[in-house]
Design goal:
mainly alpha, 9 helices
Amino acid sequence: MSRIEKAISNFEGNCNCAQSVLSSFSTDFGLNKETTLKIATGFGGGMARFGRTCGAVSGSYMVIGLRYGMGSNEEVEMKEKTYEVIQEFSKRFQKIHGSEICKELIGCDLSTSEGREYFNQNELFKKKCFYYVKNAIEILEELL
């Protein structure tokens, strides 16, 4: 099963966008699924439904951190490498979608019941969010 297929399967199974992206790479970095899902829980819906940075983007940043990030025993240069790769990821995602902000990407405010109702009634989960998750993984696979 490809990473995209894993992510979409998780996304359809009640995982949020950040969980879906991060969990599709978790075994590559020795993380078990349960821990991965817990780490990414609060990042869905643009940071706990605040509509800020898209969860697929946040999950991607976590993947980049796992690949290039600075641990306690690593060189400071790894922090710079992480920032560099995240900036490139952001540039590519924004080129495709025009934004990284959840509210802008989906056109509603998930922090309100009206926004969630609009999101569900208009099937934005399948019409939009699937593509953000898919594109995030595609970009990650190119960068990593």
